[in-house]
Amino acid sequence: MNYTAHSIAVLKGLDPVRHLPGMYTRTDSPLHIVQEMIDNAADEALAGHCRRIQVTLHADRSVSVQDDGRGIPLEIHPEEGVPTVEVVFTHLHAGGKFNKNDGDSAYRFSGGLHGVGVSVTNALSSRLEVEVIRDGARHRIVFSGGKVVEPLTQTGEAPKRQSGTRARAWPDAQFFDTPQVSPVELERLLRSKAVLLPGLEVGFAIEGGETRVWRFDQGMQQYLSEQIQDELVAPMFVSEKYAAAHDENFPQGAGAACALCWTAEGALARESYVNLIPTPAGGTHEAGLRQAAFEAVKNFCEHHALIPKGVKLAAEDVFSRMSFVLSAKVLDPSFQGQTKERLNSRDAMPLVVRMLRDPLELWLTGHPEAAKKVAELAIRAAQARNRAGQKVEKRKQSGVAILPGKLSDCQSEDIRRNEIFLVEGDSAGGSAKSGRDKEFQAILPLRGKVLNTWEIEPGSLYANREIHDIAVALGIDPHPSTANDKVLANLRYGKVVIMTDADVDGSHIRVLLCTLFYRHFPRLVEQGHLYFAQPPLYRLDVPGQGKGRPPRKVYALDENEREAELDKLRREKIRTENVAISRFKGLGEMNPEQLWETTMCPDTRRLMRVRLPPQEEAGPVMNMLMARSESTGRRVWMEKNGALVGAEE
Ligand code: 0RA
Q1: CATH 3.30.565.10 domain extents, the chain
Q2: Phi-psi group of 146: left, alpha or beta (phi > 0 → left; psi -120 to 50 → alpha; rest → beta)
Q3: Coil, helix or strand for 626?
Q4: Is 424 a catalytic residue?
Q5: Regarding the domain delimited by 392-535+584-612, which CATH topology (the fold level of the hierarchy) does it fall under?
Q6: What is the pTM of this model?
Q7: 409 is a catalytic site residue
């Protein structure tokens, strides 16, 4: 454990959790604090010590979770001077203390929605009882509101070989929107644990009601077969692969398991997990699966010359009829979205690609007849997509003037999918041009500062070359805010992305572009077509680590991410004193591949969509910011607030 005195002081008590529960868990229902208890038991199963987990929803709304694992350790904790079981339930982050740094420990990949552990459950419960059986005895400790009310005592004998833990929590209704744990959600969660831990028996009982037991000896393969009603195009593919010690790119044990299949029709079944935690909103691991499947099928098609002339396969063509269960193991996963149900750890994408692409390609090659059926399905999807694209192509060409010379346009005709990046400066424009996917991404480099158009008459806008080029590239004309959506009929890109440096000049250009769109192309913003790219703020230069581990660069979006990345490096036993951290100055500092991966690739970038507040609120603020007569004080405001308020993609 590498806790400094400072972090112990900060992390110790549970009062902060009771003060601001929303910072530590979801508070819509107690499900998530119950989930923490279940995750603990599941982690014990993951470590191979537990065969059965029993969960009971009691009539008084308390929930108990029982496992036959080793039993939470009881010995006095060397630093805290109280029994370890007490530490587990009373210290934030205690979950991380189970040897997360030890390369062999299964707990390295343990879940915990926010990694805060079961102490949060305790803090938000009016009562919590824990019984531990181990070393031939039964023991019990009881808490209330996170504080010990009955210290650890031995309550009886037990057979020598018996062991396990039972925790029963009474979630405190005052912290939750509803006091009730939804049995349906609980069931789904428990079933998923059984799916992901083959052979584990998971029981669920509602006191005075029904009981259920799940057990999947064939794990996700069995589960996926049960979910799919329709005929498979090819037999199911199943694979599991994890990084070995001293892997060049990934920490030991990181990797993925999956079962996948294709059906020509009917409902799809898609589920993904990270460290056994459900990710209903997908994320970077699913993006990796999609990429892996795409590359494997595409390579197979190319080797067998299956693709008809004029057809170009896209990832979506391969993915759209694919059902899967994906279980990724990622060190220190980070989640995104209001409900934290989407994985956004950047390295999960290349990780899953690495672990699944080659096995799938090998499998396709080994089952050529089945693989050809999959290929045909994807090719048909591509042809259908191309037909749909041709309809809009007409639109794309009609009435558009000659495109500006410095525009590097994309190839696709699929307007909804196409994107244009408005890039500050020619050098960044050059990187973006080589880094992009020219299939659907266009680049328009902008030279210097854009004109402040707040007080420019619509009629004289085009006198400015830059603005003329932007309008022509986008295929739309300036319009008043009262215009209807027909003014967007010839829009050539579904996403218009402003990509500027993360410095003062960059944010100034961002503001000027926002002003242009807000004032003169309001329907574009209203319809949600305008975005900001978010280039990373920090670069970490990690020196080479001896045999086979070359130096590498890691990017972090902000301070939080920077600290999380440093943590991860420490876990990989890399001395972070030798990691040079630089604050990023401009897009031009990144090479094209890095720019692609961090800022442009749809699966790994962070885009922010620009949203419009109602006109009557935004108007006066914009005037304050942009009118010539209002110059004082606004530069400061702009540097602080950037531009219009955005929300994540
Ligand atoms: C770390 C070490 C050991 C047990 C556990 C964790 C453990 C935690 C929980 C939480 C719920 N059920 C659990 N079961 C086990 C045991 C280490 C040892 O005995 O050597």
Answers
A1: 15-214
A2: left
A3: helix
A4: yes
A5: Rossmann fold (3.40.50)
A6: 0.69
A7: no
